[in-house]
Amino acid sequence: MTSGDEVTEDALFNLGVDLNREETVGGAVDRTLTAIRATLGDAAITVWRNHNERDSSVENAQPPEQPSQPAFSSERHIGRPGRTPPPDAALIKRCFTTDAPARTDGVAGPIAPDDSRWLPREELFVPIGPERVLSVGWGHRDAATALDGAAVRDVLERAAELLAAALDRIGSQTREPTGEIASEIRLGAFQQAIEDAADGVAILDDESYVYIDQTHVDMYGFDSKQELLGRSWRELYAADEAARIEKEAFDALERDGHWQGRVTGSRPDGTTFPAELSLTMVTPSRMVCTVRDVSDREAREHELALKERALDEAGTSIQITDPTQPGNPLVYVNEEFVQLTGYERSEALGRNPRFLQGPGSDSETTKRIRTAIETERPITTKLRNYTAEGEPYWAKLSVTPVRDANGIVTNYIGVQHDITEQRRRIRELRDQTERLELVLSGTETGIGEWDFSTNTVTLDATLRETVGASPTTIDEWQAVVYSEDRERAADALRRPIETGDPAAETIRIGTDDSEVTWIDIHTVVSDAGDGSASVLAMGRDATKRSERVKWASKLFDQGPLLFVQTRAVGGEAVIEACDRSFSDALGCEREAVVGQPLSEFYDDSSTDSLQSDGYERALSGDLTVAERTLVTTDGDTVPCLLRAIPRTVDDEVVGTDVLFIDISEREKYTRRLEAVFNSPHQLTALVRPNKTVTDVNDTLVARIGVDRSAIVGEPIDKFPWLSLDPNHGLTVSEAVNRAGDGELVQTEGELQGPDGLARIDVSFKPIRNAAGEITLIAVEGKDITVKTRQRQHLQVFQRVVRHNVRNDLNKLVGWTTMLAEEPDADCRHDHLRRLTRIFDGWERLTNKMQVIDRAIREIPHDESTVNIAEVTEKAATAVRDDHSDATIAVSVDATDGTVSRWLTHPLTEVIKNAVAAGDREDPHVNVSVRQADDGWLQIVVTDDGPGMPDIERGVLVTGEETPLQHGSALGIWLIRMLVSMLGGEVDVDVTDTGTEVVLRVPTAPANRNPASVEPSRMA
């Protein structure tokens, strides 16, 4: 807004205030002329009175078909009087004279400065209501040209509108009733009555009907005119209603010759109806009666009255304008509008709502409102308006166009919400926020507001820096939150609105592909007093904390708060006051603390920091957060975080307000939790009672080979990598449920990873918060694979020794006895070969036991890999060397697959068993390898033998072997154990044509280096 625009707005605003207080017509006109002259400068300004318009309703008025020319006379003027308005000066119009100004004597030409006989060269005419016209004229080209334009028209139109409203108000207060209506009735009374009759018409003579039309008959419920002719009018009304009509109407008929009013007619069937009755005397004894049934109109009026009452009782200011009238004036305002603005209905109706604007109204906002109305669009905005007393107030204004059936805008409905108090609260909140930011400055804690009613987000500079972004909408905020944490972040913001209680969460900021920032957020509902859904939040960077502490910190309080107030005495911090928690932490009474130097309760390091520059920085406001250690009366130490801010009296810094946070317990918890959670020997996951995984330690992530983001936020019972021992009759879901009920659950299970299947000892431990509520469940596992397999190995070894070796020893005793007693050399040689075969079997047994023993110890750490084709060919070649009569066919359809080199041992054993099955001649064995849809390798070994015994099949498939049911060949157990350790599975199918053994093993990472393991260890 330019300085000139500001002057104009001030002048019009002051004019509106002055006119609202004016009580006389002359005073109102004079104030208006003075304001216009002050705004437009040297101009001739006149208010003309239209006498024809004023007298058009009196009894000497001309008929409508013969309109008279307006008869104008000057009512008030400033400067030289102008030209009489033209007959059609009903709208804003510019009139032009000749090129040269004309004098009143008709002479045209140059005008001397002192010549008072001139008429304006150019004039503007503006109507002031129906009876007056405002004219403004200029006598010089330069003056007229400089003020030409929409700005001048706007000034004159608004000034005329203000004056018209004031004159209407003043006139309504002083106007007396006239006899104009009675005079009009007396002119051709009988003819006029007939012409005006809209419904039933009747003529009465001496109060009895002598004429009646059919409409009248039908209205009163009779069948024919004959039923009423000759009867008294009183028979059509109840007795009390007839008495009322006689009392009210007959005096008026005698005095004025006419009466009109509301009556209640009665019908023969007992029903009644509301009507408008008009009586006109045409002779001393004869009168004309016209009646109109207004039942429908009263129903509509009743409905409108109810709606208007509803609008009046609404707690919101409502206004309606009519754009079909000049200036789009107000045609309705409710009671709340009157209360809000201070303008009575009579003062507001007929005026454009812009009279509420003033010098402090934003020009850009008012321009947007005008543009929306001109383009017939709805708009919602905030603007500053003014009451009738000139007091400013802030309103949230919504303007909506109302269209008829043809799409034409017939009205604009405006709704004003007084937001003055809300803005005051916002200012107070902003001030409080600034003070809070001062307290929090240096703590890396930021503040933000999330307004769900407007979908806006506002972050301060600290929080924007922490987040690394500047979101302005809730959708933009959700976009910067890590995808796995968005649900928890949204819940932390919504929960205070839904429950009224504060909420806290630790969330990650960043995309799935970028580095994330951990922040702690604490949220509370914002009490702005306007019913808005808004949340305030404080956020702090928590990235440096360990992941375990991030989650476990929610289970424990940050520590007791200790408050101290100091006074600077000779540059030293002397305790002036403290709360009980501070003195209790020191182990003494408050009286023993107050008056003592603060350094008396510090350790040496904290005292040095205080006396060097710590207190000076606190007094100047530069000290942010510092670590201090208090010393109790018993000599114990209390680690604390300190925050100090200057304390002022009469704008002078006299000391500090100090807040200590006792973090001794928190540090103990932190050290304890970090030590447990980050243990490289323990697999740990934190799970909510609803089974959602909230965190896992690095040991578990490395063991299962799954990215952390694929675990956190997902249900733990849906993961295929963890299963519990079915012998215990417990599932993962059931274990979490029991822990959620407060039970410590301990069992065994299996953990699937890239290095194979691990046996774990697993526990589900409930974790409670300070209120005793179970908020987390710690799932902790310890790898017992080696121990379990060693136990199984020992059990198998014992059974093999007990069975195989015991049988062999019996054979040895028999054959050696026979060897010693046999005299024949050839027979002794046969006995010796039998003994040699037994010893060779023991050697093979020993080799297999050594392979199993090494596998148990080395497979978990062996990262060497080899191509599956090489493994398959090596195993087949080894068997061919020992069984030259066997036919072994190999087919590999997965040449890109890589597996552990240890797979050679179980595959060799499977092929060897297939060749040796049934001691048949010319055995045939097929070995095929393909890659399944899930990426695993499937190795199928088929033979044409008699079929694998059920005992050996049970060992391979289930791993179960009892003293009464066991595989005599240790190789069967070697196959089962090594394939399981490699994370694979074994299946056996026995048919009439032979046996099919299927090994399913996962592929190993191709980047393993086979040279990292010595070849001798793989023999």
Distinctive features:
disordered C terminus, 1019 residues, five-stranded antiparallel sheet, six-stranded antiparallel sheet, alpha+beta, Beta-Lactamase
Description:
There is one protein chain. Strand 16 (445-451) and strand 17 form a beta hairpin. This protein has 1019 residues and is an alpha+beta fold. Helix content is 37%, strand content 27%. Helix 1 (3-21) packs parallel to helix 5 (150-174). The protein contains 29 helices and 38 strands. It has eight domains: 3-174, GAF domain (Beta-Lactamase), CATH 3.30.450; 184-293, 2-Layer Sandwich (Beta-Lactamase), CATH 3.30.450; 299-422, PAS domain (Beta-Lactamase), CATH 3.30.450; 451-544, 2-Layer Sandwich (Beta-Lactamase), CATH 3.30.450.20; 561-659, Beta-Lactamase (2-Layer Sandwich); 668-783, PAS domain (Beta-Lactamase); 784-850; 862-1018, Histidine kinase-like ATPase, C-terminal domain (Heat Shock Protein 90, 2-Layer Sandwich), CATH 3.30.565. The radius of gyration is 52 Å and the shape is elongated. The protein has a six-stranded antiparallel beta sheet, with helices on both faces. The longest helix has 37 residues, at 785-821.
